[in-house]
Amino acid sequence: MSTELLEGDAGVEQTIDVIRGLVDDSLKNPAINRLATEIVARVPAYDEVGEINAVFNWVLRNIRFQKDPVQKELLRPADAIIELGAGDCDDINGVLIPSLLGTIGITTRGVTIAATPGSDDFTHIYAEAMLNGQ
Q1: Are 101 and 129 in contact (CB under 8 A)?
Q2: Is 101 within 8 Å of 108 (Cβ atoms)?
Q3: Is residue 122 within 8 Å of 112, Cβ to Cβ?
Q4: pLDDT tens, position by position, 47-90
Q5: Environment class of 121 (CB within 10 Å of its CB; exposed 0-12, middle 13-18, buried 19+)
Q6: CA distance 3 to 13
Q7: DSSP string across the chain
Q8: 58: closest CA among 5, 101, 114, 13?
Q9: β-strands 108-113, 124-129: how paired?
Q10: What angle do CA 125, 130, 134 make, to 5 degrees?
Q11: Do the beta carbons of residue 60 and residue 87 sit within 8 Å?
Q12: Which of 30, 35, 89, 130 is the most exposed place for a label (fewest CB within 10 A)?
């Protein structure tokens, strides 16, 4: 699916909405749940820190950071990121990590930041995991 990205805050909101939808779809994907379960298989049950670290380290070892196509904002579903073995920050931190963690019961959120002071447009996103209520 391709759509024109709106300008300013509306474009940021539009992008975040698509990311949320991709994560929601991935949480219902049995292949994503199976992979996440395999990733954490050697971690003791109820060790959320161990599970978070296992997922993060798996992503570091298996997914290459790759920029979007020139002048395009490309947002991939989690299974496509895994198949390709690559993605940019919104793919990896916005979609893949929250999908893998969410499907094994760890709540996450995406945090957007602007690299340019005073800019309304986000230039980076990272995932935060809820751990012990924080």
Answers
A1: yes
A2: yes
A3: yes
A4: 999 999 999 999 999 999 998 888 777 899 999 999 999 999 89
A5: middle
A6: 14
A7: ---PPPSHHHHHHHHHHHHHHHHHHHHT-HHHHHHHHHHTTTSPTT-HHHHHHHHHHHHHHH-EE-PPSTT------HHHHHHHTEE-HIIIIIIIHHHHHHTTT--EEEEEE-SSTT-SS--EEEEEE--TT-
A8: 101
A9: antiparallel
A10: 110
A11: no
A12: 30
Residue with tokens 């959320």: 48
Q: Which two tokens stand for residue 117?
A: 């002071």
